[in-house]
Design a protein that fits this description.
- The structure is a single chain.
- The chain has 475 residues and is mostly helical.
- 70% of the residues lie in helices and 0% in strands.
- Helix 19 packs antiparallel against helix 20.
Length: 475
């Protein structure tokens, strides 16, 4: 046993076993590294029957091709990217197999030259924000061409495809698939500092999706350190945006706002989606902290950022939604116009009726608060057929639809009923809607003249509306 104790030794063995599996290293090579012992001696060291000697651990790490400092940092409770990603991929083995199958199932959509593949990779970072599915198809074309036709466009191109696929599959909810592709990207990165930093950055939102905030913050710290080492200040800024979202998740609003503010110092001329993540996050932080003037300032900036050409509708809707919430909290009916615009934008983009219904219910509450009864009646009348399209076999959805239908017919909709129906939809559809819609910062006080009781803040401790943890281009 090492001087660090049994817990440290057990973690050391576990990490070595995970890395051996990740690298698919034959047991014969490990036996040779120990001086040519038999296979049972390898097993005895891994199961703890025989203690590892320091020189043996070092020899195995050399065989596995693992940086000694990174490994021991991870064993001591830090973050080791390969161990973390391999564990996630192993825990989601079905998703891992899906990733491998999806990668090689078919050939590319057409024949490509190496130069064409390099052109495809050049636009992947922007495309995965604008059109994730198109980015997935493009990235798969790159890797499938290399696999099926042995056309090698270079390590950097294959890395870009792998890291892009990781981001897209994460957004689709496939954590194991995302981890598998990030592992591929990590192995392609080798000792290239910028590539390793980007893998670390992409590990931040993955950890956030899994609710592992401590691991996410450790990954962010390592990514920031690596980007600082190579003097990539924009890379640092993008990591700070992801770190801010992670801190926001864990309820650390002051720390999140600080991370966002620091990121803006270097991202003022970066891609729109990185700037949007920072200014929108600041707007939400100040809104939840009750500093409405600052919240509105950053909400206005987020609207300005997404007004350009080529910005996806969901980000435009997110900016309008937050601005509307702030204005409503300030007592301005202008907030209703912003919510209407957010609903129109979202309805145009989304085929998900449940998401549209959630935003519609929020707007209905605003109509109710401001006494705009005719508009409330018109909107709720449209909500009934919208909810019927959901085919509500779920008891919560069925109950919400029944209550809404009854109250619309009897003109008996109250603020409390609207809020109760909204809550039922959130609970029933949690796995069927974008995590972005699971958090809506509802106003906690009523506008002047309202006779309705106070509104509770509805929060699921998930990503702000219109974003997911780390929805930046990565590095």
């Amino acid at each position: 046993m090492t001087p660090r104790g049994e817990t440290y030794d057990a973690r050391l063995r576990e990490h070595l076993e995970i890395l051996r599996g990740s690298r698919k290293t034959p047991q014969k090579k490990l036996a040779e590294a120990l001086g040519g012992v038999n296979a049972s001696q390898v097993t005895r060291r891994l199961d703890g029957t025989t203690a590892f000697k320091p020189r043996e651990v070092a020899a195995w790490l050399d065989v596995l091709g693992i940086d000694h400092g990174e490994f021991f940092h991870g064993v001591a409770g830090g973050f080791h990217a390969e161990v973390y990603l391999a564990r996630i991929a192993g825990d989601h083995d079905r998703q891992k197999k899906y990733a491998d199958t999806d990668l090689i199932a078919d050939g590319p959509s057409r024949a490509y030259t190496a130069d064409e593949l390099r052109e495809l990779a050049a636009g992947l970072r922007d495309l995965r924000i604008a059109d994730p599915e198109a980015a997935r198809v493009r990235a798969l074309d790159i890797l499938r061409t290399a696999y099926h036709y042995n056309v090698d466009p270079g390590v950097e191109v294959r890395f870009e495809a792998a890291i892009g696929l990781a981001a897209v599959y994460r957004l689709r909810g496939g954590c194991g698939t995302a981890a598998t592709f990030l592992l591929q990207a990590l192995h392609l990165a080798g000792d290239r500092g910028r590539m390793k930093a980007r893998v670390l950055h992409e590990s931040v939102p993955l950890a956030g999706d899994l609710g592992d905030f401590e691991a996410g913050l450790q990954a962010a710290a390592l990514a920031l350190s690596e980007f600082a080492r190579i003097e990539d200040f924009q890379g640092q800024g993008r990591v700070l945006v992801s770190k801010g979202i992670l801190l926001w998740h864990s309820g650390q609003l002051d720390e999140a706002a600080e991370a966002y503010s620091n990121s803006l110092q270097v991202l003022s001329k970066d891609r729109w989606y990185n700037r949007f993540g920072a200014v929108h996050g600041l707007g939400l932080c100040f809104f939840l902290k009750g500093d409405l003037s600052k919240a509105l300032k950053y909400a206005d900036r987020s609207v300005a950022v997404v007004n350009g050409a080529g910005v996806p509708i969901l980000q435009q809707a997110a900016a309008r939604f937050l601005r509307g919430e702030i204005l409503l909290k300030m007592g301005s009916s202008e907030g209703i116009s912003e919510l209407k615009l957010a609903l129109a934008l979202h309805s145009k983009e989304s085929a998900n009726n449940l998401e549209v219904a959630l935003i519609s219910l929020r707007l209905a509450c605003a109509y109710h608060d401001h006494g705009r009864i005719k508009e409330l009646e018109n909107l709720t009348a449209k909500l009934v057929p919208l909810l019927e399209k959901l085919k509500p076999s779920n008891k919560l959805l069925h109950g919400a639809l029944a209550e809404l239908s009854s109250k619309v017919v009897r003109a008996g909709l109250s603020r409390e009923a609207l809020q109760r129906i909204h809550g039922a939809l959130l609970s029933a559809g949690r796995n069927r809607i974008r995590p972005a819609l699971l958090t809506q910062p509802w106003i906690t006080e009523n506008p002047p003249g309202s006779t309705v009781g106070n509104i509770a803040v509805l929060s699921s401790e998930r990503a702000p509306f219109g974003s997911r943890p780390g929805d930046t281009a990565g590095g």
